[in-house]
């Protein structure tokens, strides 16, 4: 059966699905939702090559695909994607970790608070983290001259 939408439509749709899943990922969201979004991203992103191979298999373009695959997909990053997808599909969900790194800058020094690390086992509401940090900053502000603070959520 010939695809009336075009030769690359299946691959482009998988690419759209991958990006859509990744776009739904939010740093402050529920761990279960974010893990699901990442799992879907890896699955759909890796499936792009499968549908490309199927779409191009009986065309003159398969040799171009194989050449580009050798150049762009068969490397450490490509292998990592394959391993991550296989792990997610066959073994366990993505092992997500939320890390908050805080650096405080005063006129004379820079100091860092201990990193806050959250996983599925110890996650707390994002708003409670923000409220706690606000309290800590108010205490610090009364004791020091703070110019600014940088917070990274990784």
What does this structure look like?
By secondary structure, the chain is an alpha+beta fold. Helices cover 56% and strands 15% of the residues. It has five helices and four strands. Strands 1, 2, 3 and 4 form a four-stranded antiparallel β-sheet that branches. Helix 1 (9-24) runs antiparallel to helix 2 (31-56) and helix 2 crosses helix 4. The longest helix has 26 residues, at 31-56. The protein starts with 8 loop residues before the first helix and ends with a strand.
SSE topology:
Elements (H helix, E strand, L loop, with lengths): L8 H16 L6 H26 L5 H11 L3 H15 L7 E9 L3 E3 L3 E3 L7 H18 L2 E8 L1
Antiparallel strand pairs: 1-2, 1-3, 1-4
Helix pairs in contact: 1-2, 2-4
How would you summarize what this structure contains?
By secondary structure, the protein is α+β, with helices and mostly antiparallel strands. The chain has 5 helices and 4 strands.
């Amino acid at each position: 059966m010939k695809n009336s939408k075009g030769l690359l439509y299946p691959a482009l749709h998988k690419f759209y699905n991958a990006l859509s899943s990744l776009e739904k990922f939010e740093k402050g969201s529920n761990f279960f939702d974010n893990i699901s979004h990442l799992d879907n991203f890896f699955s759909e992103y890796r499936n792009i090559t499968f549908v490309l191979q199927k779409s191009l298999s009986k065309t003159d373009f398969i040799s171009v695909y194989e050449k580009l695959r050798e150049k762009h997909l068969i490397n450490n990053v490509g292998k990592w994607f394959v391993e991550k997808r296989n792990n997610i599909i066959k073994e366990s969900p993505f092992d997500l970790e939320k890390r908050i790194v805080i650096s405080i800058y005063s006129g004379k020094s820079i100091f860092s608070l201990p990193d806050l690390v959250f996983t599925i086992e110890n996650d707390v509401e994002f708003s409670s983290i923000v409220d706690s940090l606000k309290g800590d900053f108010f205490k610090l502000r009364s004791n020091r001259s703070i110019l600014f603070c940088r917070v990274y959520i990784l």
